Hints:
- Residues 207-230 are annotated as: Disordered.
- Helix 2 packs across helix 4 (51-64).
- This protein has helices at 6-10, 14-39, 45-48, 51-64, 106-109, 136-149, 200-203, and strands spanning 69-72, 77-82, 85-91, 155-162, 167-177, 183-192.
- The protein is α+β, with helices and mostly antiparallel strands.
- The protein starts with 5 loop residues before the first helix and ends in a 27-residue tail after the last helix.
Amino acid sequence: MVPDSPADALGSAALGLRDLLVKIVRARHSLAAEAHLVSESRYAMGFGSQWRDLLDDTSQTLKDRGFRSKKLAPSGREIPVVNDSLVYVWRLGNNPNAVSEFASSPTRKNAFVTAPLDPTLWEPSLSGEPEPVQHATERGELGSVLRAFGDTMPLVLVMVKSTPRQLQSIEWAVAVLDGDGKVKLRGQECIWEPELVADDAASDVESFDSGAPVTPVVELQKQDWKPTDG
Length: 230
């Protein structure tokens, strides 16, 4: 069964992973934006190549915390696994069909057919709370049930919208591949966006969308005038 949202897919790890992903993406964006500025390039192709670093940063950070990963064929790129769900961090391009065409790459397409890892293996926690310990027999029975159903791992797609000038938003959703090879999202949610800075000066300016502007009153000043000789 496909989860309805990233929270359903990630379980108790959802909140901790959300905060961690925001830190990873913001750090990588700062580095990529600085590199673009230093290069003085007129083109954003170099900035857009950060997608590899986003995947590697996420995979390595979670691996350092004890999480496992899966290598996707044919590229062999490692994608981290949290709560038996793949977590794929991806920078969106300018293509309006980017999400629906996400599986156009053979590697990304294989993310939708990945079998679950062995559930008898221990998995760390990002929730800050100890996970309940399952009896070995219970874990074995659970693994048999999963393999019997031939289930695949849910794919949590983390979508980054950015330009060299600004990190615009970070969203995540459960990605589902339909029969036509198009990707649809379930439970899409924005997990970070820049804070809006209110302009206090603008709030004091009256809008002209209704009524009429008031004309200022001008009073004439009397002046003493004397003709000059010559």
